[in-house]
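Field reference: sequence -> structure
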Amino acid sequence: MKQRTTKHSVRPLSEVPGCKTVAVDLAKRVFQVAGEDALGQVVYEQRIKSRDAFQAFLQQLPEGVTVLVETGPGAQAWARQVQQRGNAVRILPAQHVGKHRSGPKNDRNDALAILRAGHDRRIASVPVKNVAALAMQALHRARQGYIRRRTALSNQMRGLLLEQGIALAKGDVAINRRIPEILEDASQPIPDPLRELIDELLAEWRQLGERVAILTGRLEAQARADQTAQRLMSVRGVGPIIATALLAKQTQPERFANARQFAAYFGLVPEQHSSGEKVRLGRMGKQGDGYIRSLAIQGAQAVLQQLRPDSEQPDDRRLLRWQQRLGRKGAAVRLANRNLRILWVLLQNEQTYHREPNRRQEATMNN
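Structure field:
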């Protein structure tokens, strides 16, 4: 009786003449591979059932073969291995790959969908990031997770107190000050078990705040040590968080024909519902990276909050006109779009952004 072995025989790609593109549906241990020739005909299909076998498969890739994968856990690590071998690799966004799937969702159809998505040149590939950028991205993701959990806890505490007839204002100040006062006030109609629960939730909320502050400090330190981040922060409304987020994303701004396309990549443009000669523009598209888009809008809102109505600065007068015509939110979106366009320029040179001086300052400099 034959003993079972852990080795799986994988047909080498070198035995398939004419294979130019390979698509891989990645998983933790099982990998579905599909290959096509220059005419788009599927000439290779293989199911690889171990990580070691898939790594050996990559080591035997012929020269000139392009590898396609979709975004997901492990995609960046495998893509770097393919690049080290000298083969071209493209990481395609999973949400766009899904639109090319035909039939039920399974590994084989997913691999074939990646092949079809590779023909769609309108799909922008995700850049292959280095280890340092991934580490910086991990800080951002952990910080974002802490903020979400902290916000959920604050909403939960407000809801629990509202059921007892106690309404709290929004903001960290209300939670940090008012909740301890309410818990210490014996006249408040709150049962003792609920007081104990809210006290525990408050302690967890404060602990998450400390974790957010620690990660924010690490990102600020990295921004101070990076010259590119320092140049990006010369734009008003761009701080260390958004500067390091852009560096971690490694957007490769040279891929975009102009600054308008770079801003549109993050969804800061209106949706179109046009037909024929009728052009209809709707709300913000919200395509692309929602994290950077939200950071850009938050930075723009901070700038608008500090505006002085009597300012003579040209930039301030422009923002005041936007705010009067579009409202606070509309002006923030427009300023975020403008900032991203400026950042597209700064990412491609060694310049620093300088605000336009007002007429009095310009006259003084000329004298």
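Note: The chain has 13 helices and seven strands.
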